[in-house]
Amino acid sequence: MSEFASKVVLITGAASGFGEAIACALAKKGASLSLVDRDEENLGKVTEQCKKAGATKVLAVVADLRIEGDIVRAMNETIETFDRLDVLVNNAGIIQLGSVEDTPVESFDSIFHLNVKAHFHFTQLAVPHLEKTKGNVINMASTAAEILSPIAVFYGMTKAALTYFTKTAALGLAEKGIRVNAVCPGACRTNILKRPGLLGPGLDEDVLFGMEEKSSILGGVLVEKQDVVDAILFLASDSARTITGSNLCLDRGAVLAGPPAMS
């Protein structure tokens, strides 16, 4: 029997992309899941997938993580339903592309609220519950925290903030027996770049992923969803009991190579 069969995992941004893949993988291992997302339709589909895949129990919470009251409600509903929490996966996030000159300053609060503040708030609320189970937190960061990109100013700033938060939270919560880690994927073909108007003239997914492939020192192979899922399952498991404060890069060495060429 999988160790996750006795555990409750809360996943934010669970209706698509990495969140969906993580939820389905944990469902197959028999975990109980609290799935949080604002996309009610897709969240319902993922919930049904997880039930069919073997999850012990699944709770779907429709919530907008830019609203603090929704975050509190999501955590309260999770504890009321399961009476425990073993793993928190802070996965929800958005991407905002733009340079220093053309990135609207009005976008600052929106992206930082979802990519950083929501992670902090969920972690803060989870602490008393994770202390009881000696559980752990996994944050979804990115290689954008380390690879400087003039076209992703705000996004890179949020991911850098997350890697700092991961280390400081790990240090601060260690005495409670709570581990805190992050995964930092490189470019991966998910739906995060599908938002209309996100990519400007002359910039599309093939261009972005082409730059990532060229920068990989292990060969031109992009990160796949399964790579991220495998890393999260490991960090969430007892096999990683000695690991905390780690920002695990999944990038085929792109960070080591430095910023990719823009042409």
Automatic annotation (TrEMBL):
Cited PANTHER family: EG:BACR7A4.14 PROTEIN-RELATED (PTHR43975:SF2), ZGC:101858 (PTHR43975)
UniProt name for this protein: Uncharacterized protein
Database matches in InterPro entries: NAD(P)-bd_dom_sf, Sc_DH/Rdtase_CS, SDR_fam
Natural source organism: Clavelina lepadiformis (Light-bulb sea squirt)
The keyword Oxidoreductase appears for this protein: yes
Record's keyword annotation contains Cell membrane: no
Keywords: Oxidoreductase
Gene3D superfamilies assigned: NAD(P)-binding Rossmann-like Domain (3.40.50.720)
